[in-house]
Fold this protein.
Amino acid sequence: MMLNIRSFSLGPLQTNAYLLQGEDPGRAVIIDPGMNPKPLVKAIEHLEIEAILLTHAHFDHMGGVEEIRRSKNCPVYLHPLEQDWLTIPKLNGSLNWPQVTGPLTTEPAEFDLAEGQKLELIGHTFTVFHTPGHSPGSVSFLNGTDLFSGDVLFRQGVGRTDLTGGRERDLIDSIRSKLYRLNDEVTVYPGHGPKTTIGYEKANNPYVPA
């Protein structure tokens, strides 16, 4: 059974939130519920949410966490290197963008994520890749031939590395040693912008050529 993937462009930075459903249409997983999540909240009104998965804890990716977690009583998963980011606006970046948002905080995540971890959710298996560089705790989630890359890999682009804990060398290594080793036909669902494929990026990404 393939994933049913719906994307929502949320908030002033047009962050991609993903709503994933398996064989049971009444159950779902959310990846990166961003700011101003009203369209996403409406879409999940009658759904049971098994988990919120965060690719990383920048404010534009976690702005909708608390509203959805409280209304749906669902756990949040995040890499431990960014556990404090949910509670500290300076770390999640919301203090640095006063023209976009006020300080954002949420309660800590219920569960940690780790390299190689297998998450069994909505009848599917999601493999966790620790892909630092854009931020120290950035992760990507692979299910079959669908990869959710957060702000690591974009269509003909990569995540910025000038924010807290960012490191260009780590980002390039994450992409080359982990993501580019996936099959070329894997579809990449990034944190911003349109989807792409691993094969297309290996051939066309100007920042990290294969």
Remarks:
- The chain has one domain: 4-204.
- The longest helix spans residues 168-179.
- The first strand starts at residue 4 and ends at 10.
